[in-house]
Amino acid sequence: MDLKFETGYDFVLQNYYPTLPRSKNQLVELIQQNRIDGFITTPPCDADGFVPDLLHTYRVAYVAINPLNPMEGIPCVMGDDVGGGKMMTEHLIAQGHKRIAFLRGPRNIRSGEDRMNGYLSALEQHNLPMNPHWIMDSEFTFDGGLNSTKILLRQADRPSAIYAGNDEAAFGALYACQALGLRVPSDVAVAGHDDVIVSKYIFPGLTTIHQPMEELIEIAAGLLLQLLNDSVGLESTRRVPARLVVRGSTSTIY
Fold first, then answer.
1. Where are any strands of DSSP class E within 104-154?
2. N- or C-end of the chain: fewer Cβ atoms within 10 A?
3. pTM (2 decimals)?
4. Is 208 helix (H, G, I), strand (E, B) or coil?
C-alpha cells in the first residue's frame, strides 16, 4: 500500500543511536523544526527512555514496535516472539536435534529475549538440557552471527543445530559453517527468525519464522493513522502470529 498516496501524510525516516548525543540532538531538532504528527518507534529506540520521554514532552502521538517495556496508553505492535521461538526449537527437536544452540542478540531488544524464552520453554518441555555455553550473546548482524558461530563450532561438544535470533545473524552462521568446512544441514542445521526476503534466495534456503519487519511497520502505520484520527476502540496491543517456514537449512538426523 502506498501510504502517502492513500492518506496524504508524508513519511520521514530518522535514524537514532541511543549512545550518541548528536543523534539525540538531531531527533529533538526534527520535532522542534517540523510539524510531526506522529511517530513509529522501532527497537532499540526505547531502550534508554529518551525517545518516549521526548515524544511525551512534545505531545507527539506514537506507536511502538516490539518495545522493550510496553507503556500503558501507548499502542504497540508485537510479534509472537515467545511462540515463534518455541515453534522453531520444537521443529529442530522434531528433526532429531538434542544439542541446540541459540544466538540471543542484544539484551536491549525485547524480541531477542522473548525468542530465547520460547527456546528455553521448548527445551524444558522436551526434557532437554540447557547448556549455558550454547547460548551466545550476538549482535543481530552478519558479523555477529559469524563470530558467535565460530566460537560455538570450535567447542569440544559442539551443537548439532544453531537457532539464530534473527535472519541476519543466521546468514553469518551459515557462512561460518561453510568457512569451517561443515555442510548445512547434514553436519549442522541452521535456522533464523523474521523471514526477510533474502532468506529464500540464499543456499541452502533458510528455515525461519515468518515475521518480517515490513509487516509490523505496515500494521503500526495503520494503528498510528487510527490514533491520529481519534478512532474509538483502538487496540492497545496488536500481536502478529508467528509462522514456521521450512527450507533447506534444516533436516532430519538419522
1. 135-136
2. C
3. 0.84
4. strand
Name the residue with higher pLDDT: 80 or 235. 80
Please report, as a single letter, which amino acid is at residue 48.
D
How much of the chain is in helix, strand and coil states, percent to nearest 5? 40, 15, 45
Cα separation of the two ends of the chain: 46
CA atoms within 13 A on the CB side of 94: 8
Q: How confident is the model at residue 81 (pLDDT cuts 50, 70, 90)?
A: very high
Q: How buried is residue 252: exposed, middle or buried, by Cβ count under 10 Å (0-12/13-18/19+)?
A: exposed
CA 168 vs. chain centroid, Å, equals: 10
Cell numbers given for 193: 527468525
Residue type present at position 185: P
| Residue 234 burial (10 A CB sphere; 0-12, 13-18, 19+) | middle
Nearest alpha carbon to residue 123 among 162, 163, 95, 93: 93
